[in-house]
Amino acid sequence: MLQIAVTGKPNVGKSSFFNSATSSSVEMANYPFTTIDANKAVAHVISECPCKELNVTCNPRNSICIDGKRLLPVELIDVAGLVPGAHEGKGLGNQFLDDLMQAKVLIHVIDASGSTDAEGQSVEAGSHDPLDDIEFLEDEIVMWMYGILNRNWVRLVRKIEAEKLDIAKVIFDQLSGTGITLEDIIEAKRKVNPDYTKWEKEDFMELIRNILHIAKPMLIVANKADLPTAEENIKRMQEKYPYVIPASAESEIALVKAAEAGLISYTPGDSDFEILEKDKLSDNQLKALEYIKVNILEKYGGTGIQTALNEAIFGLLNMIVVYPVQDEHKYTDQKGNVLPDGILVPKGAVPKELAYLVHSDIGDNFMHAVDARKNMRIAADYELQDKDVISIVTRG
Ligand SMILES: Nc1nc2c(ncn2[C@@H]2O[C@H](COP(=O)(O)OP(=O)(O)OP(=O)(O)O)[C@@H](O)[C@H]2O)c(=O)[nH]1
Prior knowledge:
Keywords: Nucleotide-binding
Radius of gyration: 23 Å
Strand content: 15-25%
CATH superfamily of the largest domain: P-loop containing nucleotide triphosphate hydrolases
Bound molecules: guanosine-5'-triphosphate
Distance between the termini: 28 Å
CATH architecture of the largest domain: 3-Layer(aba) Sandwich
Number of strands: 15
Pfam family, one: YGR210-like_G4
Structural class: alpha/beta
InterPro entries: Beta-grasp_dom_sf (IPR012675), G_OBG (IPR031167), GTP-bd (IPR006073), P-loop_NTPase (IPR027417), TGS (IPR004095), TGS-like (IPR012676), YGR210-like_G4 (IPR013646)
CATH class of the largest domain: Alpha Beta
Family: Belongs to the RelA/SpoT family.
Number of domains: 3
Domain OBG-type G: 2-265
């Protein structure tokens, strides 16, 4: 399952974000996996299910369909321990960085209201500039990777020369376990001085930043957007960085709780709610709900939690959803389940890559694929499209 790391300095609302993003999956009946371990749980991203358009009733297996919306599971990892000096082993140090590197995409939770200082201590709202926190995470990761690469560099350069090794492959081996691919390194290296024997600290830093931007894209969640000091900071963040999602984890938690109690009707991701039991709500509760409506839902179009997850997968990672089936006429698997699985694949993937994502045996025995909508065989280099329904034909 695709992994998303949720991180940020202490007190910014990481746990609140993590809990609000994963609690709704827990409620879902027949969900095969909920809490994986203490700091991992399943959340979901939402995509339009092809069932409506194909006029069929689907029987999802790896996902859930609610009113034509397909909820696809992703794994969230709660990575606590970001403190200044983490790369030198402060706080949870390298454990923090190892955990972070498991994920394909990072969600960096920021206290947009500026009420926590650089170390995560509470301060007067608006007195800390949250823009300073954005650079700080990347700096910690860069310094940590620099430490790894720099450690044996002189010896490695000699070895590269003596044994005529490929520099990108050598860097790749040094960074093993970080999920960074050889292709990522080759691409990142193009923009730095080609003569690696002359690399200074700045060249390493540039290379590492390039690698990070390619291999570990980062989404900024501007949390605590409900506080009055957040608005101006959010504007400044959005002007400077491409992926900033205003959010209020606390509002999401409040709305989900009220919905669970039957007081309002609200589904995560909605941009509005409806009060069902006005008489059972106290004046304070009504005021709080009104505050959320005006200051979060109407202002930002939602609490930002579901938007952030969707943006991480479909925006930053550029994924699409493809539906493999066995019977291209009925859109079913072997057992007759209609549109059983939605699979997240990177945009640009071809049918054989989909086959491997379904199962390695199916990949090994892949012959060709059929576009079930058009009932037509597709070419080996056909780029899969979002919501494609594909039947894979295998040998034997
Ligand atoms: N106003 C407001 N407060 C929030 C929001 N999200 C979290 N908080 C508050 O911020 C404080 C920290 O929240 P946590 O979720 O524990 O933060 P954390 O980043 O996990 O903190 P650590 O466990 O210390 O790393 C708590 O008092 C929350 O109630 C939000 O969206 N709005």
